[in-house]
Amino acid sequence: MSSEPTSPRVVSRSHELQSALKGLRRSGQTIGFVPTMGALHEGHLSLVRAARRECDTVVVSIYVNPTQFGRGEDFDRYPRNLEADMRLLSDVGVDWVFAPTDAEMYPEGFDTWVQPGRIAERWENEFRPGHFRGVATVVLKLFCMVGPDRAYFGEKDYQQLLVIRRMVEDFNLPITICACPTVREPDGLAMSSRNAYLSPEHRRQARVLSQSIFDAAERVASGERSPDNLVAAMRKIIAEASDAVIDYAAVVDPNTLEPVSAVTGPVQALLAVRIGGVRLIDNLRLTPPSG
Ligand code: AMP
Fold it and tell me: Which of 150, 153, 184, 198 could pair covalently with 202 via S-S, beta carbons 3.0-4.6 A apart?
């Protein structure tokens, strides 16, 4: 298994990528794949490092997928910086970067979509209708182009991770989905390309997201069993930020994402909060004391 940093080869055409990877696959190399929208940070790089450790060939895609953005969302102003991304990926040692154009991904006449089911119905979908349809469609297309053995996703986007796992299971895709823990700034804020939109004041206020879910984890560890009490405590902490508007704050079953009526085992705290108009999400597993 190679661990020497290399300069990634960049391709924008899927047929180029497919023919390059075909030979490697035939020679028995395992392929690790990390799909991203670029504007890379340590969160993305942790996925790439995991792929580098576990696979012979590492492919990273950089594509800001228009079909997962709703009308009025930040597609146009989403940060794009391929040069900076390439520098970061060179340092980690990536073999291939796939950076397709919209015409490559959605050519004239494109008309087939993946419609995720129940797991995609609540939470994000209530505020971003159609988002997971766009995500699942582009990820399936990327999987078909790359043909990875293993694909890496962040727990940061927890509902997305479950949507992808469901799709892989339902379509019998021969791909292992590897989940990587959320990477945080020193003050706890989950790293996100969208953090760059925050003004210094809103960046300071954004700490309430992680503070509220870490507080919930402590409450559960010390015996709190009521999801209502947990959500109320989360909301109270978030309300300390004067410009925070909560889209949702919930305590749910970690597999179905349905709200739980009592904390009798591990649960997931889910959050989406807008701070000064910047929409941030976070989540954390809350584990009650055993016995
Ligand atoms: P994105 O570029 O936002 O589409 O993210 C690409 C991948 O990186 C997704 O699987 C995300 O869940 C993952 N990711 C984003 N931020 C983080 C983070 N702070 N920690 C771990 N993974 C992350």
Answer: 198
